[in-house]
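job 3f2a | input accepted
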Amino acid sequence: MSKLSEVQKLPHIINLNRSTINQSLIALLICAIGDLCAGIILGNMTFFIKTYPGILILIPGAIGMRGNIFGSFASRISTNLHIGTLEPEFKRSDILNINLASSFILTMVLSLYLAIFAKIISMIFGLESISLMDFILISLVAGIISSLIMLTLTVFISIKSYKGGWDPDNITTPLVAAFGDLLTLPCIIASLLILELMNLNLFIKNIIFVILIISVIILFIYGLYTNKYVKTILKQSTPTLILCSFLGIFAGTVLDSFASILLNNPTILTLVPLFSGESGNLVSILGARLSSALHAGLIEAEFKFNEAVRNNFIIIILLCLIVYPFIAILADITSLLLNIEAFSILHLILISLISGLVLIPIMIIIVFVIGIYSFKKGLDPDNVIIPISTSLTDALSNSLLILFSTIILSFMV
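job 3f2a | predicted structure (413 res):
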């Protein structure tokens, strides 16, 4: 009877949260286009993947890092807009300057860590890879290019959506993550081309390398000792993001380990950014909503599944049922248009939907636990929920996608 009553409540829950579902769905579908572009780029990066061995290890971590840093940036702006400490105007403010500075510093520091992790992991697993210097130069140059664009985009989307009467928690984080996914690969390709130019003069290459390393160290020290709010963000975010970088590299290692399957099935390679990106977007929407609700006192910092919490969970599951088949269809259509060898659309939908319905319930519980625990411990959930949860999502999503792709492909042989 209780199960029946819950089913009967579903139309009421949908109607009550129709605006949230519509806003989130629109954002997710827009993001899917961005992730599709990233998938098309990745699906056509076979030359770079073969020419720069190990670069595939770096890619998921770099994509995840953009989403983590700028997703948290967007979440903090959203929270400040909701509680009235930031005006929805394009003008200078201390809060905005603090967030801009901390996000740029975090990008540079994490780009360095990411490159080091990529090289260490490739050595541990005996995977062929480029040199540590090349990893660092690629990661830092891509970080600089992408952060200059992403900082501007994040502020613009956050303020515009709020002024337009949309909830930034439903719009900003997924859109920012999608732009991050879309920009990361072109930025990495640009950094590879810049690296080629550096290789023409090794002396200049070494000088640039030393300058970049020193700059990262100075920026981090500057952030820790010049502003207490920047210091707080850096102290809370850096350990979390380092852990996330490691998880991102793990995701890349999974892809690199199964590179032969991916290169032989470009449709799946096209689906990877779509699946990982949309999964991260779903999780970040939930994380941003829980964070704002905790700050506003709408949800108590207790491990209780009250009505507000359950409604948020239901919204995410409903979005899953629409998003995962949709991205599979997008990947299939793209493969056909680009004359990439594809396989049954039904199989592709099954891979995407089954992987997603296994992944998201796990991540819902993780997001809830991280949010409540961090808030109870005095940490800002905006700095913790999205980075950890989306990084775990990246690692799990790639693993599950490869697993179910392998299983379903085995039945096609």
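job 3f2a | The CA atoms of residues 164 and 320 lie 26 Å apart.
job 3f2a | closed
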